């Protein structure tokens, strides 16, 4: 997940004339859709494995912090089997809580519900999402095991849903929950301030209503994001191609002010 804030965010005053991007925006939750590779994980014989994680994770499912390597946002994972139909996953970086997710499988085994708390921003972002089963759990494994297709974001607080943008002829600004960048359209990399994963962005202005953002970490492209503003200035369509996890997520933002 980004991988995604109650205060309305203020943008730097860098433009004399407004663009269709300028202002504060809130995600329309029923607009979020994800296609591509399914999420794949299992709990079997006391071990938790996530084959769709990059890099792959395999740790003891005993509730203790287990060291993992190669992940920009966390260096330990703790997995607790809460019940025959639920598990709890906690990720930390340097001993500091980063993300906490509780997973619960429906009685018929076809739907996975996740409730998350994300601490990567200045305020805790919370929400609930569902995924639908694409492949059964391996024999003898916990019921959350198997292949799951991300489905829908059902609940999210303002910390998760609120964005702010501003565009001029030569640069573009983004604010989200204490994370922000102000990047020129010059092909250079600019840091995302406040991002614990140390993401950098490159921006390209396609026209007055379309911007292409490329995210990278350690010299490797992680996401290719198309941000398209409606000509009436009332909505923005975001398409995020997660090249590491081979998933494409789209969602709509509605103008707030």
Defining traits:
Lipocalin; mainly beta; disordered N terminus; 10-stranded antiparallel beta sheet; single chain; 257 residues
Helix content: under 10%
Q: Name the average pLDDT.
A: 93
Shape: globular
Quote the distance from N terminus to C terminus: 27 Å
Q: Provide the number of structural domains.
A: 2
Ranges with pLDDT <50 over ≥5 residues? 1-16
Bin the strand percentage.
over 45%
Say how many strands there are.
20
Work out the radius of gyration. 19 Å
Question: What is the level 1 CATH name of the largest domain?
Answer: Mainly Beta
CATH architecture of the largest domain: Beta Barrel
Described by strand count, sense and barrel closure, the largest sheet is: 10 strands, antiparallel
Strand order of the largest sheet: 14-13-12-1-20-19-18-17-16-15
Q: What structural class is derived from the secondary structure elements?
A: mainly beta
The H/E string reads EEEEEEEEEEEHEEEEEEEEE
Under CATH, the topology of the largest domain is which? Answer: Lipocalin
Number of helices: 1
